[in-house]
Amino acid sequence: MYLSNVPKLTSKRELVRVSGMRWPVETAIEECKGELGMDHYETRSWRGWRHRMTMTLVAHHFLVRLRLRLQKTPALTVTQVRELLTVMLPRREFDIYTALAMVQSYQRHDHIACLAHRKRTLKRLRQWRL
Hints:
Layout: H1 12-19, H2 22-35, H3 46-69, H4 78-88, H5 96-129
């Protein structure tokens, strides 16, 4: 259930659309905190804090846009794009084959971790039922 202060003329469709925007915003903030250091600020002024938050969100926007541009590879995460840039940007020449090998390595690692997590969770659930 939601409580809102929108004008009476606002359609239910618009209310549903806006309420659905909560998940992408929360996901973006989580990624900014976990990957881009949004929560690692030491400022004492409003201006400094606002600058830090703005720069973090701009960096996140850049990584998401780059992830969408590299969509030929399956399901890149913001973490994978950040790590890819960290390795590839200092190089003088950009080698697409090295980049693709890195992406495949990240995704293989993530897949193995996902399978291990699922196995652990299923084992815990089976023990709980007994």
